[in-house]
Amino acid sequence: MDFNATKLFIAVVNAGSFSAASDRMGVPISTLSRKINELEQALNVQLLERSRHGVKPTYKGQQFFEQARLGVELLEDAQKSVTSAHKLQGKLRLSVPPNFSLWWDLLLEFQQRYPDIKVFCHSSERVVDLFEDGVDVALRMGNLNIDDVIAKPVMTVESLFVASPKLLARYGTPKTLAEMARLPVAGWESLNHGFFEWDSGSEKVKYEPFFSTNNAQALIHYALSGMGVSQLLDFSARPWLESGELVQLLPGTVKQTLPLHLIYARHKHPSALVRAYLDFCAEWVGKLK
């Protein structure tokens, strides 16, 4: 059986179409089609159902996909271990929440330690599908409602209320959430979320932002310009708090904490690259504490 043809078959199933697999693998569609036809002939079974909407595995194809994938990954790891002179090599496909500047520092140091690992990092509000999008590890913020992945807790982040001294000079410093809600607010809003309420545990206050966005850099810009109060993640606000360009509001208020998890496929054997990344993240975050 052709090992390379099996790898291409797995790539096509993961991508959902020959064209998507071609883009991802850098292999012409004609080559993909020919190699998978040869694999089907060698196995004497149809592996894929082809249509104008894409491809999907047949019942036998799905069985072959599930059993072959683990074997291919193990063989690739074995091949790398004897051909890379003990250096980790390859490409790691990651997903990180947008505007998550803390992780850029982590990735810089990760690639300094592993210079032969190439990294593709997807950043979007959209929750990626680890299988369809071919992502090895995703960083997720907040609570998870997923059963088919392994979620490894990595850290928690806090959100802070901040404003510039210029704004506070005009309006005064609020002492409660209700007082803060009367100030101009630049708030976070995504396409599918427009619920504006602050909750300190003992106090809940609804507010109406005069400006809202899903871009953290825009919220920082509005806060620095003295245009409004913003709620930022602690690591995003820290440089401006230290310089005095922003002031933390209501420091005694119960802070909103968000858990961070690194997730990867439950039934997918983690490759040497994935294991190195997971271990590095745990080590790097441990130094922050």
From TrEMBL:
Provide the HTH lysR-type domain boundaries. 1-58
Q: Note the SUPFAM superfamilies from the entry.
A: Periplasmic binding protein-like II (SSF53850), Winged helix' DNA-binding domain (SSF46785)
Pfam families for this protein: HTH_1 (PF00126), LysR_substrate (PF03466)
Q: From which domain of life does this come?
A: Bacteria
What are the entry keywords?
DNA-binding, Transcription, Transcription regulation
User: Belongs to which family?
Assistant: Belongs to the LysR transcriptional regulatory family.
Q: What is this protein called?
A: LysR family transcriptional regulator
**Top-level taxonomy:** Bacteria, Pseudomonadati, Pseudomonadota, Gammaproteobacteria, Enterobacterales
